[in-house]
Amino acid sequence: MDRTEARRLATELVSKMTIEEKASQLRYDAPAIERLGIPAYNWWNEALHGVARAGTATVFPQAIALAAIFDEDVIEDIADVISTEARAKYNFQSALGDRDIYKGLTFWSPNINIFRDPRWGRGQETYGEDPYLTSRMGVGFIKGLQGKGEYMKVAACAKHFAVHSGPEKLRHSFNAQVSDYDLWDTYLPAFEAAVKEAGVEAVMGAYNRTNGEVCCGHHMIKEILRKQWGFEGHFVSDCWAISDFHQFHKVTDTPEESAALAIKSGCDINCGNTYVHLMEALNEGLVTEDDITQSCIRAFTCRYLLGMFADDNEYDNIPFAVNDCDRHDKAALKAAERSMVLLKNDGILPINLNAIRSVAVIGPNADSTVALEGNYNGTSSRYVTYLEGIRAACRNAGVRVNYSLGCPLYKNATSNLSKDDDRIAEAVQMASMSDVAILVLGLDSTIEGEEGDASNEYSSGDKESLELPACQKRLLKAVIDTGKPVVTLIAAGSALRVEEGNAVLQVWYAGQAGGTAAANLLFGKVCPSGRLPVTFYKSASDLPDFTDYSMQGRTYRYFKGEALYPFGYGLSYTAFRYSEPTFDQNKNALTVKIKNTGLRDAEEVAQVYIKPMEFESHGLNYSLCAFGRVSLASGEEKRVMLPIPERAFECVTDDGRRIRAGRHFRLYVGGSQPDNVSVNKLGAAPLEIDVVI
Questions:
Q1: What pLDDT, on the 0 to 100 scale, is given for residue 453?
Q2: What is the mean pLDDT of each successive set of 10 residues along the chain, which is 693 residues long?
């Protein structure tokens, strides 16, 4: 069904409603209107990396891990699986009259905010720090969710419009001050792509203010989203964000004024309870019936697009049996394998199981399902922890696994009666009696995440530093001091400074198959191929203040220091050689030969960065402008084409306009960005090619 027809039907249906009924439909928990045959509907649902908070579902790696795959098509396929499970759940739930929260077809995903500061707890929900990578991942995810059928499969929602990335504890009153340059260069591109390329059905506003205006009542909703970009979907507030207008931002005095500001600015659906005051706002002359009617029509246009009132919706036939099925579990495993990033390796990896007798598996995240999940997660019936995955692989080879918790996640002891570090002696013993020690450290969503969801010793889910919790640092040192080889696995949704160990593997929050995926990488069944979607800094002291929304000194694009592990970086068990780069101006594409010169079959992520040679734009180093994942057998060579978008040849002016950035550009193509740290760690520099447009 096209939008014109859906809007016509919605307009006709809404015309039959009373004004009170129209207003009631703008709450996230919209009641039934029985006389019109309209069932109750709850707009609130989540699907960040699997159908969330609604019972059993396939749990994929967290969003930041999906970004590490650097493959838009893979992300679209994963989102298609998620939307299939979403429809399967909706079909049986609605048939049983269960229309509760987390059981509808409007999913408040993806989060396409820019992960500008590694201290932000919700950064794990994003696709990283780069606007182009975020755009491509967001477009793929939205397309996968919304589908290609006659009706929309499920409705995606791009959030949080538009300048939002912490701090969590200040978000209800914080004013993010951003220049026009940063707004259009960094913060808006992913939202523009979501609207123009992916046709996203919904956009959610943020809690904070941006340049003095509350985000859910901002002029950008009408002026940029709707007028400039042609957004025709519905806009939804973040949860209880509209009540922040009068309670914390103090831009209004009453709930009625807050409701009026939001709806007149273009916010259609209220997650919260402020729109229960819409009728009072109408009676006070703060809003008109047309304001309410317009938003109600947008809401029902979405429901018609989803085929909620249709008899011929193909998605109504998706059976519940496809949920949590073997095929989806295999997809979760493949995603986890591709997402993990090998940060350091002195040659210890891959471990040859035929050459050892025992392995120590140590750490608070070794046998933790929470460390697999990340936030905004579903519940899997198939969790494989790191301990379980390693044990399964070792069992088949006759290798003994010695396990110790080592320490709690962040507390100093396992009980109030114990002395500090009460499990370190056991961990030391386990390492001492093993040929190699695998430490599984990091964080989880209980201490890193959203304000109100995460409860940590830091600040509302954010981090104060980039260090491991102190107890884990003591454990790590004690195990290393045994002299045994140490492989360090880091389960986290953000950058941590971890260099210790013979090898370091960033496993993120890897989803239900994380343990199997890690074992496959550790023991050489699969080559690591993930790449960092964020910069890993040496210290938070290398960064500007967390509340500073200027991009100067942030992310690989503007950072002038030396990274610990750079954006785009990741090691493999093989090597790749790039040669013969050429640029086709007619196709706006760079082609290059890539050869796997090692002994193992593997996947490589080719990356292209661009730097204007005639414009110095706010100290910009260079920007990612193309990437592609290619599978190469040992000794195989392929010529790969990497299309470069026209926008890559533009720059943003101080007043936010996009203009052509001259005629001369330098392109870098290789397995990393062209920074010194990547070049030194990988032993190869990207190829350079100068082009004139």
A1: 84
A2: 97 98 98 98 98 97 98 98 98 96 98 98 98 98 98 98 96 98 98 98 98 98 98 98 98 98 98 98 98 98 98 95 98 98 98 98 98 98 98 96 98 96 98 98 96 72 96 98 98 98 98 98 98 98 98 98 98 98 96 98 98 91 98 98 97 96 96 98 97 93
User: C-alpha 586: how far from its chain's center?
Assistant: 34
Q: Which helix (H) or strand (E) holds 83?
A: helix 72-95
Q: Tell me if 544 sits within 8 A of 558, measured CB to CB.
A: no
Segment 546-549 long-range contacts (CB within 8 Å, at least 24 positions apart):
546/117, 546/119, 546/120, 546/166, 546/167, 546/462, 547/167, 547/170, 547/174, 549/116, 549/163, 549/165, 549/176, 549/177, 549/178, 549/182
Q: What's the rounded Cα separation, in Å, for the pair 504 and 507?
A: 9
Taking only Cα atoms into account, the Rg of the chain, rounded to an integer number of angstroms, comes to 25
- Of the candidates 85, 129, 201, 238, the residue annotated as catalytic is 238
**Is the four-CA dihedral 50, 51, 53, 58 of positive or negative sign?**
negative
Candidates 80, 185, 324, 448; catalytic one = 448
pLDDT value for 340: 99
Q: For residue 398, what pLDDT is reported?
A: 96
Q: How far apart are the first and last CA of the chain?
A: 41
Q: Which residue from 167, 173, 259 is spatially nearest to 208, judged by alpha carbons?
A: 173
Which helix (H) or strand (E) segment is 637 a member of? strand 637-643
Catalytic residue at 238? yes
Distances (CA, A) of 309 to 1, 37, 98, 457: 12, 9, 17, 49
Maximum Cα–Cα distance across the chain: 80
- How far is residue 621's CA from residue 623's CA, in Å, rounded to a whole number? 7
Strands (E), 449-572: 486-491, 503-506
Domains plus CATH for the chain? 3-315 (3.20.20.300), 332-531 (3.40.50.1700), 576-692 (2.60.40.10)
Residue-level pLDDT at 456: 62
